[in-house]
Structure formats: C-alpha cells, structure tokens
Amino acid sequence: MPVITNIEDLRRIYEKRTPRMFYDYAESGSWTEQTFRENVSDFRHIRLKQRVAVDMSGRSTASQMIGQDVSMPVALAPVGLTGMQSADGEIKAARAAEAFGVPFTLSTMSICSIEDVAEHTTKPFWFQVYTLKDDDFMRRLIERARAARCSAIVVTVDLQVLGQRHKDLKNGLSAPPKLTPKSIANMMTKIPWGLEMLGTKRRFFGNIVGHAKGVTDPSSLSTWTAEAFDISLDWARIAQLKDWWGGKLIVKGIMDPEDARRAVEIGADAIIVSNHGGRQLDGAVSSIRMLPAIMDAVGDKVEVHLDSGIRSGQDVLKALALGARGTFIGRAFTYGLGAMGQAGVTKALEIIHKELDITMALCGETNVRNLGPQNLYVPKGFGDPTVLL
To answer: Which CATH number fits domain 7-377: 1.20.1300.10, 3.20.20.70, 3.90.180.10, 3.90.1150.10?
Structure first.
C-alpha cells in the first residue's frame, strides 16, 4: 500500500479499485463539468494569513452543527449509490463517521437502507430526503427515519429535474450494474471489489425496493425513479415536510440569497450552500464563491453550511473563516471508501482533520470557532458572482 498523505492519494487508489461506471458517477459533473471543476479551483483564489509567536498549545477543532457536538465541523454528505463504491458502503461510512465524531448523512438513494445503517451504528445519523410525488411513500420514509432515531433530515431542493451527466448515460449506470460486454470486461479488472459484492445481499436501492408502491425489483425501480421526483416542489411543500418530520431540518441546495431567505422563513434549522457538486446546473457559480453573499443575507438568522468542492482541511478552514458553521464532504470520503473501505473513510477524515488543525495553528488560531475574515486574504469581488477574476 502506498503512503497516503492527502485526499488525492485516496482518489488514485479508488480509481484503480472501483468499476468505471461507479468511479465516473462520483468523479463527474453535468454537461461540460465547468462548475464541477470550479467548485475545487475557486478555493485557490482565497489565500491564508500566516501569524507567528502565538501559543499553539491546547488547540481544538471541536464545534457544533445544529446543536450536535462534532470533533470538527465536517459532516459526511449524502451520496447516492455509496454501497456500490464498496460493499455495504453506507454502513462502513456511517461507522467511520461515528467513531470519528462527525455526522453521517444517509441518502434516500442509498444501497443500504435506513434500517441497515441504524442496526450497525449506535448514535443517531442524519437522513437526506428527496421530495417525491408519492405522499404515502414520503410519510412512511419519514416515519422510518424517525424509527431509526435519525436526528435531522436534510431536504435536497435542487433535483426537481436531473442534470445530464454524460458519463452516466454512456456507462449505463445502474445498481446493480447491467451486465454488458463493456461492464463485464471492466469489472473483471476489479476482482477485490467483485468478491466483496458477492459477499453482501445489499445491491439494490434499499430505501426504495420493497417500500415504494409497485417497486419489487430493479426493473420496476427504473420506471418508478423516472416518474417519482416532484417537479412541482415549492416552499410550501418543503414546509409541509418540516411539519411531517417535526424535528431538525436542513435545506440543501441553496445558491441564491433570496432562496436562503425563503429557507429561513419556513423555519429551516440550517441551510447548505451547495450546487450538488456540479452535477446539476453546469455553469452555476461555485459554492465557495456564493457563500459570502448568502452569509450577508441570512448569516445571523440561520446556521449556514457549505458543500461542493472541499478536498482538504484548508478548504474547510476557508469556508469556516468566511462564516460557515459547518462543511460537508462527499467525494473526499467516497474516494476513501472505494480505496480502502471503512478504513479509507477514516483515513480521509484523519487527513482533513490534520490539515485543518495544522493550518489553523499556522494562521495563529487555537480554536476552530475563532476562525474569521482575519485569517484570510480574499480577492476583491470574490463574493460578487458578477465579477470574473
């Protein structure tokens, strides 16, 4: 095993170990992938202020996200098909997050079900909800999350229609993978992955198959999925989901100050500045570039988190110093999971934590809660999406 010192090391191992359709599913965006790339590259425009001769003993990255104690303000984002990156992937990722002391968010489109994850963890996790047309299914899904002791739901609001992802279409993405000459040839080069998959019964969308009306097998699932997403989603519908749930609610997919204000009006406990990792509206502004404007609009009224583009602890620090109270990683933990299973997710968290801790120290801060604009050099106009750098 090579020496692993950063998230990119995990990505390279992940690419070698995982079938191409699932690697491409994670490591791609929609259309030209401009937003996918700029989510990462825009962090580089923000520079750090070095400070010296500050007592660096007793440093702490501990914080809170929606009132929950966290070892660092980093949550595992909801990622669909996680159980196809590594057998029982959602369970592995949830267990790694629990041991590390950070939140895990289970996707509606997970392979392992809510019940599977609850059975294999000891602490509450968060559950991500897509708004679907079927009220009966939605009510039962929320009740299942409540029965599993989920402590918050994360409502994704930027997937009413699906952005076109060329690689997924060309690869024939499916769970389990369709057996074609191309997919078989590729999977034959991923023997350890295949052996792990043969050892699990979890190969379908565990929250859907057997729970949604008329969905009893993968063939019926594809028809249901094509018709299930609620294109009529509006703020009243989100407020209704909040009423059904009755607990902590996070709105994911906010990229505009006015939408942030609307989320505050319906009583969201937190919002996530996110463009779905560049997988929906290609050509949208990066999440980190939109964060300052959204902080100006609602930062004193609701907890603001940031998702999309984080690949290091320095990225985490920059988001926190711009005002975010928490951050989410999706691809970074997926790389670790595909590379080394649960140990790889732990490794990804260790890498990000170490980078955050050391960078915080070199910026002259001993507590992650004290990070702020004083730690950054931000280019003029960075927070104004009409200004091109």
So the answer is: 3.20.20.70
